[in-house]
Design goal:
Length: 462
């Protein structure tokens, strides 16, 4: 317990107290915008079909353009990109509210939804990238880097529980327009504050000479190729999104069938709360439990714990099954983002993190469409079957994918930011490569006996 608290204390020593708070408040609009847009358009047009189209284009915009924003951050730094995206998103969200209240037709509303989604500043993936960069700059050990992922995963989980709850509360007490208006204000204020925070200097983009370097072995067009594990993780995250979509549709269908549709949001929130709590506790897991083992354990748990959904047909068992299932979700998400971070070259990390987040959104959107139709035809178990099938496929990916045994992509360690405190003593051995992050070397040695031999191979990055 005290070791866990000390580890998170070292994380806060790197980031400061304000950065996690600002990044959390800047994430809320992402969690509020899709649900809020659906409620708003349904309220103003009286058409669930139109609301679904607008919500769909919003998700599509985020899925398609999220990686583009990440790539721009890698090239030009987070500050200018997030400042621009936050401003555009605030204006687009406000325009969507005005258009819905003004009675715009479906096509222009869908276009505004697409712009709103495309301009979402992906604060969650970018905050991970920035916090990891701070950890490497301070030569923090792998326990701190792991705690960074746990903390960021917890902030994501809490935001995606609190965001829709705020939308529902605003819609109940006033109007869905109030919720989306609040989202626009949040992204304008805290997205800007996140961009202007001094720690943005660690994500200022690569030096010009590096950006223009010619292609070499392992690259394509001057861009480092990702190892296969990165694409497997993206697939696993898309399947995680499918689990979310299947659960959402199944919960909605079952609570409606039982005559208590208002319970759907509470059931789903209970799952999110447990997921967030387990994610925070994951920071206490010893480093000897490597990412390969964590990935397999999390996906196996998701499969085993989701199977009872197929037999659940009353409210209180639904609460119990869904709440327990939440314990498997955060460990998978945190491990997936950690695998991405350790397998991707630092110069492409923001893009890779954004791609991972977009994979999750894409899987959820597709599964919602499919599982909703299955629920109409076969009842709640039809939707829950989507979640169970996705969990099985995700476990299969984890079992057949080779996971890197050690980190070999290293970040340069430039001078500290003014006033920055390090997370602890340098972990580099005397023979560490010049400019390399010695935490990767230390982790490789620490984990070699545990799972390096079983892996049989170390990829270019972990």
């Amino acid at each position: 317990m005290f070791g866990t608290v000390d580890t998170y204390r070292r994380v806060i020593a790197l980031t400061g107290l304000l950065l996690p708070l600002m990044s959390f408040l800047a994430r809320l609009p992402v969690a509020m915008s899709q649900f809020g847009s659906v409620l708003l358009v349904a309220e103003t047009t009286g058409s669930l079909a139109t609301a679904g189209i607008v919500g769909g284009t919003l998700s599509a915009g985020q899925v398609v353009f999220g990686p583009v924003l990440g790539r721009l951050c890698d090239r030009h730094g987070q500050r200018p990109v997030v400042l621009t995206a936050a401003a555009v998103n605030a204006v687009a969200t406000a325009a969507l509210v005005a258009g819905a209240l003004g009675g715009l037709a479906t096509a222009p509303l869908a276009a505004l939804g697409a712009v709103t989604g495309a301009s979402v500043p992906l604060i969650g993936p970018l905050a991970r990238t920035r916090s990891v960069a701070l950890a490497h700059r301070a030569r923090a050990d792998e326990a701190v880097v792991s705690a960074v992922h746990s903390l960021e995963g917890t902030l994501d989980e809490v935001s995606f529980v609190l965001g829709p709850a705020l939308v529902g509360l605003a819609a109940l007490l006033a109007h869905p327009a109030v919720a989306l208006g609040g989202a626009a204000a949040l992204v304008a204020a805290f997205g800007t504050a996140y961009a202007l925070h001094p720690t943005a200097a660690v994500t200022a983009g690569p030096p010009a000479v590096t950006a223009g370097a010619p292609g070499r072995a392992g690259t394509r067009g001057g861009r480092t190729r990702h190892p296969r594990v990165v694409y497997a993780v993206r697939g696993s995250l898309a399947l995680q999104g499918a689990m979310f979509g299947g659960c959402q549709a199944g919960i909605a269908a079952l609570t409606a069938q039982l005559g208590v549709p208002g319970q759907a949001g509470i059931v789903y929130a209970a799952m999110g709360v447990v997921s967030a709590a387990v994610g925070l506790a994951l920071g206490a897991l010893p480093a000897r439990y490597g990412l390969r083992l964590r990935w397999r354990a999390a996906t196996a748990a998701a499969l085993v714990l989701s199977l009872p959904l197929l037999l659940t047909d009353t409210l209180w068992p639904l609460y119990a099954v869904v709440t327990v299932l939440g314990a498997a979700y955060a460990p998978h998400l945190i491990t997936a983002f950690a695998l991405t971070e350790r397998a991707v070259a630092p110069a492409r990390l923001a893009e890779a993190m954004a791609f991972a987040a977009s994979s999750l959104v894409a899987g959820q959107a597709l599964a919602l469409t499919v599982s909703g139709r299955l629920a109409e035809r076969y009842g709640p178990s039809g939707a829950f079957a989507v979640a169970v099938g996705a969990a099985a496929l995700s476990l299969g990916l984890a079992l057949v994918t080779r996971v890197p045994a050690a980190r070999t992509h290293h970040s340069a360690a430039p001078a500290e930011l003014p006033g920055q405190r390090t997370a602890g003593p340098a972990q580099a051995p005397p023979a560490a490569p010049a400019g390399g992050a010695a935490d990767g070397v230390a982790e490789g040695a620490a984990r070699g006996a545990a799972d390096g031999a079983a892996e049989g191979v170390a990829y270019a990055g972990r």
